[in-house]
Specification:
The protein is α/β, with parallel strands linked by helices and 392 residues long. 44% of the residues lie in helices and 19% in strands.
């Protein structure tokens, strides 16, 4: 098992990140060692699919250690990160008389983690939280760093809170139950993180993607555990330096750099009502658009752009986007939660490991439209069609 620590102050605010095959079976022990007081009640928030796979086993193990365990299952899908579902989650905690030292466990992917984490953040002004992410994307990204949120009709993650988990339990065995699209989504997020980190992590990630293409069993190897731990370590290093994503920072260590590819991604998700794209798939497109924008602004060398394109290609096929209207996408961009003073702030690249935050006023409407068209167009790699789009 790999163990990392995200320390936000010396004494009281720490997240322990545990990565390993089968580590979910050690949850009772990890809870006891990561919390200042052992909880009397544990509330597991999950969805039906994940709970059938892993929840019953976890409940049995926790009850064996004499914890009082309650479970509540939310609907599946990004569109259910809503006020209505959040209210039901909070009511579940209230009806089972949860107290300030009791624990909420988020068992599932990013949607479950975001909503369960937000419920834990606001009920009784904050309950301890444990994240058990079961998708690759949530393992390397959303479970680490303390962001929790729900969506509004106008945009994604517009209502939320920072609420750090006491522990994150990343079991690589859960990856074997994922459908291909969920893996593609997670691989895209890996590429995003590697591009803004450094050449070493980028090369390690690209090599890992090639290994997975050869054999899916690579997901269960110690090398892949190391890759996940490396991604978690990178994100933890950024979060420790800028937990609240300060709008006053624009340096290369700002938490805002983690939004690379996300500006376009969130717009794509919004205009399709969160039904067409997995989040990471939308990020795949978002990286391609950001890469084109970086080149068009004279920041990124064409050879580096090609490396970005090839890395996204290695993630796998993305859904078609051929009926999306570029005007709708541009309108959705205006609701981006990262806007400052009414301006979109783009995270772009000057090279692998060299992210740069660029004010929206420096991006002309013509350049943006050109970059969207190029980033979402049909591409061919060795005769294979990939990331198809025809923009009106």
């Amino acid at each position: 098992m790999r163990r990392l620590e995200l320390a936000l102050n010396q004494e009281t605010r720490r997240s322990e990140i545990n990565v390993g095959r089968g580590v979910r079976q050690d949850l009772a022990q990890l809870i006891s060692t990561s919390l200042p007081r052992v909880p009397r009640r544990i509330g597991i928030i999950s969805n039906d699919r994940v709970f059938q796979l892993y929840g019953r086993e976890i409940v049995r193990n926790l009850k064996r250690e004499r914890f009082k365990v309650f479970e509540w299952l939310m609907p599946e899908g990004e569109r259910h990160k809503s006020f209505r579902v959040l209210e039901n989650a909070v009511r579940f905690l209230n009806e089972n008389q949860f107290e300030r030292d009791d624990l909420v466990v988020a068992l599932g992917g990013g949607v479950v983690g975001d909503l369960a984490g937000f419920a834990a953040a606001i009920y009784l002004r904050g309950l301890p939280l444990a994240q058990i992410p079961t998708t690759l994307l949530s393992q390397i990204d959303s479970s680490v760093g303390g962001k929790t949120a729900i969506n509004l009709p106008s945009g994604k993650n517009l209502v939320g809170a920072f609420h750090q988990p006491a522990c994150v339990v990343i079991d690589t065995e859960t990856l074997m139950s994922l459908p291909s699209r969920e893996l593609v989504s997670g691989f895209c997020e890996m590429v995003k993180q590697a591009l803004i980190a450094d050449k070493s992590l980028f090369e390690k990630t690209v090599d890992g993607l090639r290994q997975v293409q050869s054999s899916r069993d690579f997901l269960l190897t110690s090398d892949f555990e190391d890759l996940i731990a490396s991604h978690c370590g990178f994100k933890a290093s950024i979060v420790m330096g800028d937990e609240r994503e300060s709008t006053g920072r624009s340096d290369s260590k700002s938490r805002r750099i983690l939004n690379f590819g996300h500006t376009t991604a969130h717009a794509l998700e919004a205009v399709t009502n969160y039904r067409r794209f997995r989040h990471g798939e939308a990020v795949g497109y978002g990286m391609l658009v950001a890469g084109e924008l970086s080149r068009n602004l004279g920041l990124l060398d064409p050879r580096e752009l090609e490396s970005l394109r090839e890395a996204v290609h290695l993630c796998g096929p993305l859904p078609r986007a051929d009926r999306l209207d570029v005007n709708h996408i541009i309108a959705a961009l205006k609701h981006d939660k990262k806007s400052v003073d009414g301006q979109i702030n783009w995270v772009l690249l000057e090279g692998v490991g060299l992210p740069r935050i660029v004010e929206g006023k420096l991006v002309s409407a013509k350049t943006l439209r050109l970059s969207l068209r190029a980033g979402l167009q049909t591409r061919r790699y060795g005769g294979e069609v990939h990331t198809n789009a025809k923009i009106k």
